[in-house]
Amino acid sequence: MARTTPLAPMIGAGPSTTAVRSPKTAELVAGTLRRMVVDGKLNEGDFLPNEAELMAHFGVSRPTLREAVRVLESERLVEVRRGSRTGARVRVPGPEIVARPAGLLLELSGATIADVMTARSGIEPMAVRLLTESGNAAAFDELEQTLDEHVAHSWQSGRLAETTGDFHRRMVELSGNATLTIMAGMLHEITVRHTAFAMKESNPPSKADYEKLMRSYRRLVQLMRSGDGAAAEAHWRKHLDTARALLLQGLETVKVRDVMG
Question: According to the model, what pLDDT value does residue 109 have?
Answer without folding.
Answer: 92
